[in-house]
Amino acid sequence: MTITAEPSAEDLRRRLTDHLVAEGVLHNPAWKHAFVTAPREEFVPAFSLRTADGVRAYQTGEPEYLETVYRDVSLITQRDASGTATSSSSQPRVMAAMLEALPDADGTRVLEIGTGAGYNAALLCERYGDEQVVSLDIDPGLTAAARQRLHSAGYTPTLITGDGTGAHTPLAPYGALIATCGLPRIPAAWLDQLAPGGTIVANLGYGLAVLRLDEHGAAQGHFLPEMASFMTARTTSESVPSEQHDVTTLMRAVGTVTSAHVPWDVTGPMPRFLGAMLHPSATDLTLTDENGTTVHAITDAASGARARLSHRGEDARIDQGGPRALWDERLALLRDWSRAGQPGVERYGLTVQGCTHTLWLDTPDGLSWTLP
Ligand SMILES: C[S@@+](CC[C@H](N)C(=O)[O-])C[C@H]1O[C@@H](n2cnc3c(N)ncnc32)[C@H](O)[C@@H]1O
Protein backbone atom coordinates (compact mmCIF):
# COMPACT_ATOMS: atom_id res chain seq x y z
CA MET A 1 0.00 0.00 0.00
CA THR A 2 1.32 3.45 -0.90
CA ILE A 3 0.54 6.30 1.42
CA THR A 4 0.80 9.66 -0.31
CA ALA A 5 1.47 12.54 2.06
CA GLU A 6 -0.70 15.65 1.59
CA PRO A 7 1.44 18.55 0.36
CA SER A 8 2.26 21.02 3.13
CA ALA A 9 1.40 24.73 2.95
CA GLU A 10 5.10 25.43 2.21
CA ASP A 11 5.05 22.94 -0.72
CA LEU A 12 1.87 24.51 -2.07
CA ARG A 13 3.26 28.05 -1.74
CA ARG A 14 6.35 27.03 -3.68
CA ARG A 15 4.22 25.32 -6.32
CA LEU A 16 2.05 28.44 -6.74
CA THR A 17 5.17 30.64 -6.96
CA ASP A 18 6.68 28.36 -9.64
CA HIS A 19 3.40 28.50 -11.54
CA LEU A 20 3.39 32.34 -11.45
CA VAL A 21 7.00 32.36 -12.70
CA ALA A 22 6.13 29.89 -15.49
CA GLU A 23 3.14 32.08 -16.45
CA GLY A 24 5.54 34.99 -16.91
CA VAL A 25 3.93 37.27 -14.31
CA LEU A 26 6.49 36.85 -11.51
CA HIS A 27 10.17 37.70 -12.10
CA ASN A 28 11.64 39.76 -9.27
CA PRO A 29 13.42 37.66 -6.58
CA ALA A 30 12.02 39.94 -3.86
CA TRP A 31 8.43 39.25 -4.94
CA LYS A 32 9.17 35.53 -5.38
CA HIS A 33 10.40 35.53 -1.78
CA ALA A 34 7.18 37.25 -0.68
CA PHE A 35 5.01 34.65 -2.44
CA VAL A 36 6.92 31.66 -0.97
CA THR A 37 6.74 33.23 2.51
CA ALA A 38 3.31 34.86 3.10
CA PRO A 39 0.76 32.23 4.23
CA ARG A 40 -2.42 32.76 2.17
CA GLU A 41 -4.31 30.21 4.32
CA GLU A 42 -4.02 32.53 7.37
CA PHE A 43 -6.17 35.12 5.55
CA VAL A 44 -8.91 32.94 4.07
CA PRO A 45 -10.24 30.58 6.79
CA ALA A 46 -13.55 30.38 4.89
CA PHE A 47 -14.27 31.24 1.26
CA SER A 48 -16.34 30.21 -1.72
CA LEU A 49 -15.57 29.53 -5.34
CA ARG A 50 -17.74 29.41 -8.42
CA THR A 51 -17.50 25.92 -9.95
CA ALA A 52 -19.21 24.25 -12.91
CA ASP A 53 -21.91 23.02 -10.47
CA GLY A 54 -22.52 26.38 -8.78
CA VAL A 55 -20.90 27.98 -5.76
CA ARG A 56 -18.87 25.74 -3.42
CA ALA A 57 -17.87 26.77 0.11
CA TYR A 58 -14.57 25.79 1.76
CA GLN A 59 -13.49 25.99 5.40
CA THR A 60 -10.15 25.49 7.09
CA GLY A 61 -9.54 21.87 8.08
CA GLU A 62 -11.80 20.42 5.38
CA PRO A 63 -10.45 18.11 2.65
CA GLU A 64 -9.19 20.07 -0.40
CA TYR A 65 -9.23 23.34 1.59
CA LEU A 66 -5.45 23.89 1.61
CA GLU A 67 -4.90 22.86 -2.00
CA THR A 68 -7.72 25.19 -3.09
CA VAL A 69 -6.22 28.09 -1.10
CA TYR A 70 -3.09 27.79 -3.25
CA ARG A 71 -4.88 27.55 -6.59
CA ASP A 72 -4.39 30.51 -8.91
CA VAL A 73 -7.97 31.72 -8.44
CA SER A 74 -9.79 34.52 -6.68
CA LEU A 75 -11.40 33.33 -3.42
CA ILE A 76 -14.67 35.01 -2.41
CA THR A 77 -14.47 35.79 1.31
CA GLN A 78 -17.61 37.89 1.85
CA ARG A 79 -21.04 38.24 0.26
CA ASP A 80 -23.94 40.58 1.07
CA ALA A 81 -27.50 39.44 1.88
CA SER A 82 -28.32 39.17 -1.85
CA GLY A 83 -25.32 36.90 -2.50
CA THR A 84 -23.26 39.58 -4.30
CA ALA A 85 -19.54 39.23 -3.54
CA THR A 86 -18.27 42.18 -1.50
CA SER A 87 -14.73 41.02 -0.73
CA SER A 88 -12.18 38.46 -1.82
CA SER A 89 -8.59 37.38 -1.93
CA SER A 90 -7.69 38.34 -5.51
CA GLN A 91 -6.31 35.95 -8.14
CA PRO A 92 -2.57 35.48 -7.43
CA ARG A 93 -1.71 35.86 -11.13
CA VAL A 94 -3.26 39.35 -11.21
CA MET A 95 -1.77 40.23 -7.81
CA ALA A 96 1.71 39.25 -9.04
CA ALA A 97 1.38 41.29 -12.25
CA MET A 98 0.32 44.37 -10.25
CA LEU A 99 2.94 43.95 -7.49
CA GLU A 100 5.72 43.56 -10.07
CA ALA A 101 4.72 46.97 -11.46
CA LEU A 102 5.39 48.70 -8.10
CA PRO A 103 8.76 50.41 -7.51
CA ASP A 104 11.64 47.97 -7.12
CA ALA A 105 13.09 49.87 -4.17
CA ASP A 106 13.35 48.60 -0.60
CA GLY A 107 11.52 50.72 1.94
CA THR A 108 9.03 52.26 -0.51
CA ARG A 109 6.04 53.59 1.44
CA VAL A 110 2.90 52.01 -0.07
CA LEU A 111 -0.82 52.66 0.29
CA GLU A 112 -3.09 49.74 -0.60
CA ILE A 113 -6.76 50.54 -1.28
CA GLY A 114 -8.98 47.48 -0.67
CA THR A 115 -7.49 45.46 2.21
CA GLY A 116 -10.05 42.68 1.82
CA ALA A 117 -8.67 39.43 3.20
CA GLY A 118 -5.28 41.05 3.98
CA TYR A 119 -3.12 38.63 1.97
CA ASN A 120 -1.91 41.32 -0.45
CA ALA A 121 -1.01 43.53 2.54
CA ALA A 122 1.08 40.63 3.88
CA LEU A 123 2.94 40.39 0.54
CA LEU A 124 3.56 44.17 0.65
CA CYS A 125 4.93 43.86 4.20
CA GLU A 126 7.30 41.08 3.05
CA ARG A 127 8.60 43.29 0.23
CA TYR A 128 8.78 46.77 1.78
CA GLY A 129 8.65 46.25 5.56
CA ASP A 130 5.59 46.48 7.84
CA GLU A 131 6.21 50.10 8.85
CA GLN A 132 6.04 51.20 5.19
CA VAL A 133 2.64 49.64 4.44
CA VAL A 134 -0.74 51.34 4.93
CA SER A 135 -3.82 49.39 3.87
CA LEU A 136 -7.35 50.74 3.80
CA ASP A 137 -10.81 49.20 3.32
CA ILE A 138 -14.24 50.80 3.41
CA ASP A 139 -15.66 47.94 5.48
CA PRO A 140 -14.87 48.11 9.23
CA GLY A 141 -15.56 44.37 9.69
CA LEU A 142 -12.95 43.59 7.04
CA THR A 143 -10.25 45.86 8.45
CA ALA A 144 -10.84 44.41 11.95
CA ALA A 145 -10.56 40.80 10.69
CA ALA A 146 -7.55 41.59 8.50
CA ARG A 147 -5.78 43.34 11.40
CA GLN A 148 -6.23 40.31 13.63
CA ARG A 149 -5.11 37.85 10.90
CA LEU A 150 -2.12 39.96 9.88
CA HIS A 151 -1.01 40.24 13.50
CA SER A 152 -1.30 36.52 14.15
CA ALA A 153 0.74 35.86 10.97
CA GLY A 154 3.37 38.31 12.27
CA TYR A 155 2.63 41.41 10.13
CA THR A 156 1.90 44.86 11.56
CA PRO A 157 1.02 47.28 8.71
CA THR A 158 -1.12 50.37 9.45
CA LEU A 159 -4.77 49.49 8.76
CA ILE A 160 -7.42 52.16 8.22
CA THR A 161 -11.17 52.03 7.66
CA GLY A 162 -12.30 54.59 5.09
CA ASP A 163 -13.30 55.32 1.52
CA GLY A 164 -10.11 54.99 -0.52
CA THR A 165 -11.44 57.20 -3.30
CA GLY A 166 -11.37 60.30 -1.12
CA ALA A 167 -9.56 59.69 2.13
CA HIS A 168 -6.28 61.41 2.90
CA THR A 169 -4.31 58.95 4.94
CA PRO A 170 -1.89 59.74 7.78
CA LEU A 171 1.38 58.45 6.33
CA ALA A 172 1.18 60.30 2.98
CA PRO A 173 3.04 61.00 0.79
CA TYR A 174 3.51 57.52 -0.65
CA GLY A 175 6.02 56.18 -3.14
CA ALA A 176 3.28 53.91 -4.49
CA LEU A 177 -0.46 53.40 -4.37
CA ILE A 178 -2.04 50.09 -5.37
CA ALA A 179 -5.81 49.68 -5.62
CA THR A 180 -7.44 46.26 -5.54
CA CYS A 181 -10.98 47.48 -6.14
CA GLY A 182 -12.10 48.68 -9.57
CA LEU A 183 -12.63 52.38 -10.24
CA PRO A 184 -14.19 54.35 -13.07
CA ARG A 185 -11.49 57.03 -12.96
CA ILE A 186 -8.36 57.85 -10.92
CA PRO A 187 -9.52 59.96 -7.94
CA ALA A 188 -7.80 63.36 -7.64
CA ALA A 189 -7.07 62.52 -3.95
CA TRP A 190 -4.61 59.85 -5.09
CA LEU A 191 -2.40 62.29 -6.98
CA ASP A 192 -2.29 64.55 -3.89
CA GLN A 193 -1.02 61.67 -1.75
CA LEU A 194 1.82 60.57 -4.04
CA ALA A 195 5.42 61.66 -3.61
CA PRO A 196 7.10 63.10 -6.76
CA GLY A 197 7.87 60.20 -9.11
CA GLY A 198 5.40 57.97 -7.19
CA THR A 199 3.58 55.08 -8.88
CA ILE A 200 -0.13 54.22 -9.11
CA VAL A 201 -1.15 50.67 -10.04
CA ALA A 202 -4.91 50.46 -10.43
CA ASN A 203 -7.74 48.70 -12.20
CA LEU A 204 -9.91 50.85 -14.50
CA GLY A 205 -12.59 48.85 -16.32
CA TYR A 206 -10.69 45.84 -17.71
CA GLY A 207 -7.26 47.54 -17.72
CA LEU A 208 -4.48 47.62 -15.14
CA ALA A 209 -2.88 51.05 -15.38
CA VAL A 210 0.66 51.77 -14.17
CA LEU A 211 1.06 55.55 -13.84
CA ARG A 212 3.98 57.68 -12.60
CA LEU A 213 3.57 61.16 -11.15
CA ASP A 214 5.61 63.64 -13.18
CA GLU A 215 7.03 67.03 -12.18
CA HIS A 216 3.90 68.81 -13.51
CA GLY A 217 1.59 66.84 -11.19
CA ALA A 218 0.26 64.57 -13.97
CA ALA A 219 0.18 60.77 -13.59
CA GLN A 220 1.04 59.00 -16.80
CA GLY A 221 1.86 55.52 -18.06
CA HIS A 222 0.86 52.38 -19.93
CA PHE A 223 -1.55 49.54 -19.23
CA LEU A 224 -0.16 46.12 -18.29
CA PRO A 225 -0.61 43.30 -20.84
CA GLU A 226 -2.63 41.45 -18.18
CA MET A 227 -6.36 42.32 -18.19
CA ALA A 228 -8.54 42.04 -15.10
CA SER A 229 -11.68 43.50 -13.61
CA PHE A 230 -11.86 43.85 -9.82
CA MET A 231 -14.91 44.33 -7.62
CA THR A 232 -16.14 47.87 -8.15
CA ALA A 233 -15.35 50.35 -5.37
CA ARG A 234 -18.27 50.87 -3.02
CA THR A 235 -19.33 54.30 -1.78
CA THR A 236 -20.30 53.04 1.69
CA SER A 237 -19.58 49.81 3.55
CA GLU A 238 -23.21 48.73 2.97
CA SER A 239 -23.66 49.66 -0.68
CA VAL A 240 -22.88 47.32 -3.54
CA PRO A 241 -23.36 48.57 -7.10
CA SER A 242 -26.51 46.89 -8.43
CA GLU A 243 -26.19 44.54 -11.40
CA GLN A 244 -29.97 44.11 -11.76
CA HIS A 245 -31.46 45.01 -15.15
CA ASP A 246 -34.92 44.76 -16.55
CA VAL A 247 -34.41 42.57 -19.62
CA THR A 248 -37.77 43.56 -21.15
CA THR A 249 -36.68 47.21 -21.11
CA LEU A 250 -33.29 46.33 -22.59
CA MET A 251 -34.92 44.42 -25.47
CA ARG A 252 -37.08 47.41 -26.40
CA ALA A 253 -35.66 49.63 -29.16
CA VAL A 254 -34.68 53.15 -28.15
CA GLY A 255 -34.40 56.44 -30.02
CA THR A 256 -32.69 57.01 -33.32
CA VAL A 257 -32.00 54.08 -35.66
CA THR A 258 -28.88 53.99 -37.86
CA SER A 259 -26.71 51.32 -39.44
CA ALA A 260 -22.95 50.78 -39.34
CA HIS A 261 -20.26 48.42 -40.58
CA VAL A 262 -19.08 46.49 -37.49
CA PRO A 263 -16.55 43.82 -38.52
CA TRP A 264 -15.38 43.12 -34.95
CA ASP A 265 -16.62 40.98 -32.10
CA VAL A 266 -17.74 43.81 -29.84
CA THR A 267 -17.54 41.47 -26.82
CA GLY A 268 -13.83 40.71 -27.47
CA PRO A 269 -11.20 41.81 -24.91
CA MET A 270 -10.09 45.02 -26.67
CA PRO A 271 -13.60 46.30 -27.56
CA ARG A 272 -14.57 45.61 -23.93
CA PHE A 273 -11.48 47.45 -22.63
CA LEU A 274 -12.08 50.48 -24.88
CA GLY A 275 -15.83 50.49 -24.09
CA ALA A 276 -15.19 50.52 -20.34
CA MET A 277 -12.60 53.32 -20.67
CA LEU A 278 -15.14 55.44 -22.53
CA HIS A 279 -18.23 54.55 -20.47
CA PRO A 280 -17.01 53.61 -16.99
CA SER A 281 -20.45 53.78 -15.39
CA ALA A 282 -22.18 51.77 -18.12
CA THR A 283 -23.34 48.17 -18.00
CA ASP A 284 -23.02 46.01 -21.12
CA LEU A 285 -25.32 43.06 -21.67
CA THR A 286 -25.51 40.74 -24.66
CA LEU A 287 -28.95 39.19 -25.20
CA THR A 288 -30.76 37.24 -27.89
CA ASP A 289 -34.17 38.57 -28.99
CA GLU A 290 -37.22 36.51 -30.03
CA ASN A 291 -35.96 36.40 -33.66
CA GLY A 292 -32.62 34.91 -32.60
CA THR A 293 -30.77 38.19 -33.22
CA THR A 294 -27.89 39.00 -30.86
CA VAL A 295 -28.34 42.41 -29.26
CA HIS A 296 -25.50 44.23 -27.45
CA ALA A 297 -27.14 46.66 -25.04
CA ILE A 298 -25.39 49.46 -23.16
CA THR A 299 -27.07 51.26 -20.26
CA ASP A 300 -25.23 54.26 -18.82
CA ALA A 301 -26.33 55.02 -15.28
CA ALA A 302 -24.44 58.35 -15.16
CA SER A 303 -26.06 59.98 -18.22
CA GLY A 304 -29.25 57.93 -18.53
CA ALA A 305 -28.33 57.08 -22.14
CA ARG A 306 -29.17 53.70 -23.66
CA ALA A 307 -28.04 52.08 -26.89
CA ARG A 308 -28.40 48.74 -28.67
CA LEU A 309 -26.42 47.19 -31.50
CA SER A 310 -27.88 44.21 -33.42
CA HIS A 311 -25.55 42.33 -35.77
CA ARG A 312 -26.44 41.25 -39.29
CA GLY A 313 -23.18 39.68 -40.43
CA GLU A 314 -20.63 42.49 -40.48
CA ASP A 315 -23.37 45.11 -40.58
CA ALA A 316 -25.29 46.25 -37.59
CA ARG A 317 -28.49 48.07 -36.79
CA ILE A 318 -28.02 50.60 -34.01
CA ASP A 319 -30.68 52.32 -31.97
CA GLN A 320 -29.70 54.74 -29.27
CA GLY A 321 -31.33 57.37 -27.09
CA GLY A 322 -30.62 59.79 -24.26
CA PRO A 323 -28.05 62.57 -23.97
CA ARG A 324 -25.20 60.50 -25.48
CA ALA A 325 -24.98 58.29 -28.58
CA LEU A 326 -23.18 55.47 -26.77
CA TRP A 327 -22.61 53.10 -29.71
CA ASP A 328 -21.50 55.95 -32.04
CA GLU A 329 -18.92 56.97 -29.41
CA ARG A 330 -17.65 53.39 -29.04
CA LEU A 331 -17.50 52.66 -32.76
CA ALA A 332 -15.38 55.80 -33.33
CA LEU A 333 -12.81 54.46 -30.82
CA LEU A 334 -13.00 50.97 -32.36
CA ARG A 335 -12.40 52.34 -35.87
CA ASP A 336 -9.23 54.11 -34.61
CA TRP A 337 -8.15 50.83 -32.95
CA SER A 338 -8.78 48.88 -36.16
CA ARG A 339 -6.94 51.43 -38.36
CA ALA A 340 -3.95 51.13 -35.97
CA GLY A 341 -3.83 47.35 -36.63
CA GLN A 342 -5.88 46.26 -33.59
CA PRO A 343 -3.11 46.82 -30.99
CA GLY A 344 -3.16 45.05 -27.63
CA VAL A 345 -3.97 46.77 -24.36
CA GLU A 346 -0.26 47.26 -23.48
CA ARG A 347 0.10 49.74 -26.36
CA TYR A 348 -2.50 52.02 -24.75
CA GLY A 349 -1.63 54.50 -22.03
CA LEU A 350 -3.32 57.07 -19.84
CA THR A 351 -2.54 60.58 -18.62
CA VAL A 352 -4.39 61.91 -15.59
CA GLN A 353 -4.14 65.64 -14.88
CA GLY A 354 -6.55 66.74 -12.15
CA CYS A 355 -9.86 65.21 -13.20
CA THR A 356 -9.00 64.99 -16.92
CA HIS A 357 -8.20 61.51 -18.24
CA THR A 358 -6.61 61.18 -21.67
CA LEU A 359 -6.24 57.76 -23.30
CA TRP A 360 -3.45 57.45 -25.88
CA LEU A 361 -1.85 54.95 -28.19
CA ASP A 362 1.91 54.28 -27.86
CA THR A 363 2.95 57.76 -26.68
CA PRO A 364 1.14 60.63 -24.91
CA ASP A 365 1.71 62.91 -27.92
CA GLY A 366 0.46 60.28 -30.39
CA LEU A 367 -3.13 59.41 -31.22
CA SER A 368 -5.16 60.36 -28.13
CA TRP A 369 -8.73 60.65 -26.85
CA THR A 370 -9.88 62.86 -23.99
CA LEU A 371 -12.25 60.67 -22.01
CA PRO A 372 -15.62 62.22 -21.11
C1 LIG B 1 -10.87 42.35 -4.35
S1 LIG B 1 -11.07 42.83 -2.70
C2 LIG B 1 -9.42 43.15 -2.15
C3 LIG B 1 -8.49 41.99 -2.17
C4 LIG B 1 -7.31 42.09 -1.25
N1 LIG B 1 -6.44 43.21 -1.58
C5 LIG B 1 -6.52 40.80 -1.22
O1 LIG B 1 -6.38 40.15 -2.25
O2 LIG B 1 -6.08 40.41 -0.17
C6 LIG B 1 -11.67 44.49 -2.88
C7 LIG B 1 -11.84 45.21 -1.57
O3 LIG B 1 -12.04 46.58 -1.83
C8 LIG B 1 -12.85 47.08 -0.79
N2 LIG B 1 -13.44 48.35 -1.21
C9 LIG B 1 -14.52 48.54 -1.99
N3 LIG B 1 -14.75 49.86 -2.14
C10 LIG B 1 -13.80 50.51 -1.43
C11 LIG B 1 -13.52 51.89 -1.20
N4 LIG B 1 -14.28 52.86 -1.73
N5 LIG B 1 -12.45 52.22 -0.42
C12 LIG B 1 -11.69 51.24 0.13
N6 LIG B 1 -11.91 49.91 -0.05
C13 LIG B 1 -12.95 49.55 -0.82
C14 LIG B 1 -13.86 45.97 -0.55
O4 LIG B 1 -14.46 46.09 0.72
C15 LIG B 1 -13.01 44.73 -0.74
O5 LIG B 1 -12.56 44.24 0.49
Automatic annotation (TrEMBL):
It is found in: Cytoplasm. CDD domains: AdoMet_MTases. GO terms for biological process: methylation. One of its GO terms (molecular function) is methyltransferase activity. InterPro entries: PCMT (IPR000682), SAM-dependent_MTases_sf (IPR029063). Its EC number is 2.1.1.77. It comes from the Bacteria. Pfam families: PCMT. Keywords: Cytoplasm, Methyltransferase, S-adenosyl-L-methionine, Transferase. The keyword Coiled coil does not apply. Belongs to the methyltransferase superfamily. L-isoaspartyl/D-aspartyl protein methyltransferase family. This is Protein-L-isoaspartate O-methyltransferase.
